Amino acid sequence: MLLAGLLGAGEDAFLCDMAEFYGILEPRAQPVRRLAALAAGLPARARCRLALAGEKADPALLLLASIADRLGFLCWAQTRDGQRGKNRPPSVLAALLGAEGPAKPLPRQGQPGRWPMKTAPPLRRRAKAS
Fold it and tell me: How far is the C-alpha of 36 from the C-alpha of 38, rounded, in Å?
């Protein structure tokens, strides 16, 4: 059942995974039971497993892309462009997920909807009860 699902998700991906993980260049020459056992042992990062799950990339790769985006944002925020909200670096994660588009510029400090909108009033100290 798993073998049929993996083949249905993408035969080319299945062929690539068999070659990459097991060195099998001609899966059609293998017995079906062996292919089924090998397919069940494919790791979660295998192309056909990702296709079957509807994911676009390996979760570890997405995590690394997210880390790169955060680091790039922190570095950019320290520059003049970052202070003015211009030339924001493109998102690696968005490119991997296919949601590439222009990054929204950050509003300048003091504009509505931007944190911190107003500073909180100073805290009053209570007089000590004696």
Answer: 5
27 secondary structure, DSSP code: G
Q: How far apart are CA 66 and CA 4, in angstroms?
A: 33
104 pLDDT more than 70: no
* pLDDT more than 70, % of the chain: 75
Nearest to 48 by CA among 22, 86, 71, 78: 22
Mapped onto helix, strand or coil, the DSSP state of residue 50 is: helix
Residue 63: both structure tokens together: 């995590």
Is 2 within 8 Å of 39 (Cβ atoms)?
A: yes
With a threshold of 0.70, does the pTM exceed it? no
Distance linking the first and last C-alpha atoms of the chain: 78
Question: Of all helices (H) and strands (E), which one includes residue 31?
Answer: none
pLDDT at position 54, please? Answer: 82
Query: Distance between CA 114 and CA 107 in Å, rounded?
Result: 6
- Give, as one character, the DSSP assignment of residue 29: G
Angle between helix axes 2-9 and 32-40 (nearest 10 degrees) is 80
